TrEMBL record, chain B:
Keyword terms, alphabetized: Membrane, Transmembrane, Transmembrane helix
Stated name of the protein: ABC transporter permease
Superkingdom as given in the UniProt entry: Bacteria
Residue ranges occupied by any ABC-2 type transporter transmembrane domain in the UniProt entry: 9-203
Compartmental location: Membrane
Topology of this chain in the membrane: Multi-pass membrane protein
């Protein structure tokens, strides 16, 4: 699927401000960003629910609407509601009946792990159960591309884990998934690729490691008894220092240089630990508003 | 239009206790109540229609109006809860959605009409020929179309919160101003003029036509047709803007 030069404004608010994005078949892509970054609008355009002001979207070479009609795209909407006076099986059955080549309803229910809820009224579901039913609704057209907008909102930890397990089965068959989330661990654990959005633009795009690397630097932690802060700050490659008791935490542009200098100066330093910047730090750094950086 | 979609919609509506109560039971109860309150079972109106028959038709009109209004107005709920967005992710077209809702309104109007007529025949001894029964029922049912469209227009324009009040006020207004609760013949001139624009007035006339000589069916078709065209236009317009937003 491809988005090119996408713009969409609501009044004065540029929800999406020039997004270019190409996703190859088989990729599992996480769309990350703070609230209001334009994730949902991007997803809506991709599904043909919103027409862009400028730019184009195509899915398997079709327009979004054509792709939806052909059943190659399934989606789980953020606030997509269920039919209150129908049972789970009826709601999923209806969506199946509207599609041309659906999965058997029982299979969609089983894959979404809601087979036991088939005869339950949609009003009598917990938040997590509703999300799983929405997942069944997204699966029932047997799509090649699955688009999920904040799929695990309202799920507890265990349900979330189960949900992703079900999702893995689905992607193991080589299908494409794009999911918007603000749970970083989900992106980190599950996505092959992370696309970070801020203020309607893509600010980083790549594997988790690549996105992390765009925010350069590492963190060096060690126990260094009696080292004055000023001396630590003067070490080569160090950007910032934090001291907690004997423990120091050095934010380094060049951790190798900093480590050599540190050990030369304070041979007693121990418990040395160097970590790459986490996705969370990268996320914060990249999605912070311009003026705060 | 999709048969399974329509079938589920009907099933959902029937499950709804409010639908059953207001659109099927209420008109019938009112009919039995009025007949016995009037206590004038054997009297005949100046147009040649027995009081009981006239009340039966009035209450059938009351019944046929409520179901489509309620059914269409539920579109507002589906718009607000996001179920419509969910349906947009299926091959169902926007017009297919509206057509199904229209068909649903027509289907739901039928039981209310039939129950009142059956009670009329069985309990209240209303007598007419088989052909007349079919004409009365069929005429009333066909004349339901403007109300189906009114329901759809409300559903497309109103918010989920507002639609309850709007349908309530509208069915009151259509009932009162359409001569269902008070006959147009006793209304003052200005009110009578208003009544002659109401779809209810003409639907009632369609229902009476098989039994009364010289009913002005041509005007009925004209006025009801006008309502259908105007409402259809509003619905289509509203629908285009909806689709453009999509």
């Amino acid at each position: 699927m491809a988005l090119s030069g996408l713009h969409k404004a609501y009044g004065d608010v540029h929800a999406v401000d020039g997004v270019d994005l190409v996703i190859a078949p088989g990729e599992v892509v996480a769309l990350l960003g703070p609230n209001g970054a334009g994730k949902s609008t991007t997803v809506d355009v991709l599904l043909g629910l919103t027409a862009p002001d400028r730019g184009e979207a195509s899915v398997f070479g079709l327009t979004p609407r054509e792709a939806v009609v052909s059943g190659t795209v399934g989606a789980m909407l953020q606030n997509g509601s269920l039919l209150d006076d129908a049972t789970v099986a009826e709601a999923v059955g209806l969506v199946a009946a509207l599609h041309r080549a659906p999965l058997p309803v029982a299979e969609a229910l089983a894959r979404a792990d809601v087979a036991d809820l088939a005869n339950r009224r949609c009003t009598k579901l917990s938040g997590g159960q509703k999300q799983r039913v929405r997942f069944a609704l997204a699966l029932v057209c047997d799509p090649d591309l699955l688009v999920l907008d904040e799929p695990t909102v309202a799920m507890d930890v265990e349900t979330r884990r189960q949900f992703w397990r079900g999702m893995r089965e689905y992607t193991d068959s080589g299908r494409t998934v794009l999911f918007a989330t603000h749970y970083l661990e989900e992106a980190q654990e599950f996505a092959d690729r992370v696309v970070l959005m801020r203020s309607g633009r893509v600010v980083a795009d790549g594997s988790v490691a690549e996105v992390r690397a765009t925010v350069s630097g590492r963190t060096l932690r060690a126990v260094v008894p009696g080292a004055p802060v000023a001396d630590l700050e003067a070490l080569p490659g160090v950007r910032a220092v934090e001291v907690r008791g004997d423990g120091v935490e050095l934010a380094c542009a060049d951790s190798d240089a900093a480590l050599r200098a540190l050990l030369a100066r304070w041979p007693a330093a121990h418990d040395v630990e160097i970590t790459a910047v986490g996705l969370e730090d990268a996320f914060l750094a990249l999605t912070a508003p311009e003026e705060a950086r | 239009m999709n048969a399974r979609f329509l079938a589920l919609e009907v099933r959902r509506a029937v499950r709804n206790a409010r639908y059953l109560l207001f659109t099927i039971v209420m008109p019938s109860v009112m009919f039995l109540l009025f007949v016995n309150l009037y206590g004038a079972k054997d009297q005949v109106f100046p147009n040649g229609l027995p009081v009981t028959t006239s009340l039966m038709i009035n209450m059938a009109v009351f019944g046929l109006m409520s179901a489509p209004l309620a059914a269409g107005a539920r579109i507002a709920v589906e718009r607000s809860t996001g179920w419509q967005r969910q349906l947009r992710l299926t091959p169902l077209s926007s017009s297919g959605y509206v057509l199904t809702k229209g068909a649903l309104g027509m289907v739901l109007a039928l039981p209310g009409i039939l129950l009142v007529l059956v009670l009329g025949a069985v309990v209240e001894d209303v007598r007419m020929s088989a052909l007349q029964w079919v004409e009365v029922a069929g005429g009333l049912w066909l004349a339901t179309l403007p109300f189906v469209l009114i329901g759809i227009v409300i559903g497309l324009l109103a918010t989920a919160d507002g639609m309850q009040a709007i349908t309530g006020v509208l069915s009151m207004a259509f009932g009162l101003l359409g001569g269902i609760w008070i006959p147009a013949e006793v209304a003052p001139g200005w009110l009578a003029a208003v009544m002659h624009v109401m779809p209810t007035y003409w639907v009632k006339l369609v229902g009476q036509a098989p039994l009364v000589g010289g009913a002005d069916l041509g005007t009925a078709v004209l006025v009801l047709g006008g309502w259908v065209l105007a409402l259809g236009f509003v619905a289509a317009k509203r629908f285009q803007t909806d689709a453009a937003r999509a």
